[in-house]
Design a protein that fits this description.
Number of strands: 14
Radius of gyration: 27 Å
Structural class: alpha+beta
Order of helices and strands: HHEEEEEHHEHEEEEHHHHHEHHEEEH
Number of helices: 13
Helix content: 40-55%
Distance between the termini: 89 Å
Strand content: 15-25%
């Protein structure tokens, strides 16, 4: 009888111990779930554009020091260069300044012609296309981008928070990674200086075309067959960006954002944007993104003049942007 009682007590103790272990395990699990959920809420809260994009760092020194940036907005400079694999430097082929307002879902873009006359610190006045190349040769790849940002910031008076540089192969890879795009051409385009010899002379009529990465890059690289040359190229850049934006936000590609973000190095030569920056942008545009209505492309006309180039130490053909028009465009669309 005593033996049965002892066994009963022993079994009861084991049962209590098991229940106690189970209870502690459940408590720990509950704590982890709550902590994980809290972290998730915290992370989501911190990534909301109004919270994430505030008190941003300004790159360079050319911006307006009195400019107060609104939360939920940022300025980014997109750089297209002709740098090739293995090269230590490349020329700037195109630059697009973007003021993104994720509160009002507006994206104002200003393309700066590659031959625009700009001031380069320590050198003087030269073409925009030369700034990045000279700085990269003298100080390395990153400083080349910073100098290009400085020049655009000084020219426009816009403080720039981010930069993203791609090249021919990077743009081609990005378009192919999202399955090609529909690109609406505003006029006929004939390829007069393509990267690939077999594309010489190909003509695309005005209208919408389904294009792969190779043809998007060939078309946006064209200049000489276009109305207004560089200004015509700006319209093609707009068409490509709208096509990419629409395809990126399609249901099939939204789910691939993490994978695309993980392969940034394949289509971006350089950027200071983080994965969190890109996720926050995704949260900002999700559910209310209509690129054809929300992306606005601004142009500032300029005059082609021959002026002394401080780097070449000789006269050079450059574009001088209309200062009054530039100031009005910047004030109305880029610093509000």
């Amino acid at each position: 009888m005593a033996r049965e009682t002892n066994e009963s007590r022993s079994g009861l103790k084991r049962s209590k111990k098991r229940h106690r272990i189970l209870r502690y395990t459940l408590i720990i699990l509950l704590v982890l779930i709550v902590a994980g959920t809290s972290f998730g809420f915290y992370k989501y809260y911190s990534l909301k554009p109004a919270n994430h994009f505030k008190n941003l760092t300004i790159i360079g020194t050319g911006g307006n020091s009195k400019y107060k940036q609104k939360s939920g907005t940022f300025n980014v400079l997109l750089i297209g260069s002709d740098v090739r694999k293995g090269d230590i430097a490349g020329h700037t082929d195109s630059m697009v300044l973007i003021h993104a307002d994720l509160n009002n879902h507006t994206y104002n873009m200003l393309s700066i012609p590659r031959d625009t006359r700009v001031y380069m610190q320590g050198h003087g006045y030269t073409k925009l296309t030369s700034v990045q190349y000279i700085a990269q040769v003298e100080h390395g790849s990153k400083q080349g981008i910073i100098e290009a940002v400085n020049s655009i910031s000084s020219l426009t008076g816009v403080p720039i928070n981010y930069y993203a540089e791609t090249n021919y192969w990077g743009l081609q890879y990005m378009v192919d990674a999202i399955g090609g795009i529909d690109m609406t051409l505003p006029f006929n385009v004939t390829l007069t200086h393509p990267w690939y010899p077999e594309d010489m002379g190909k003509t695309f009529t005005a209208g919408t075309h389904a294009l792969d990465g190779k043809m998007v890059t060939e078309i946006t690289h064209e200049r000489y067959s276009l109305p207004g040359t560089d200004y015509g190229r700006q319209q093609l850049q707009q068409a490509a960006l709208v096509g990419i934006a629409k395809k990126m936000m399609s249901p099939a590609n939204v789910t691939r954002f993490p994978a695309l973000a993980g392969s940034l190095s394949k289509f971006l030569v350089a950027t200071n944007m983080t994965t969190d920056d890109m996720i926050s942008i995704g949260l900002g545009v999700k559910g209310d993104f209509h690129p054809e209505q929300q992306i606005k492309y601004r142009q500032v006309k300029g005059s082609s003049v021959t002026m002394y180039d401080d780097i070449l130490k000789a006269n050079n053909s450059e574009i001088v942007l209309d200062p009054g028009q530039l100031q009005n465009v910047i004030k109305q669309y880029f610093t509000n």
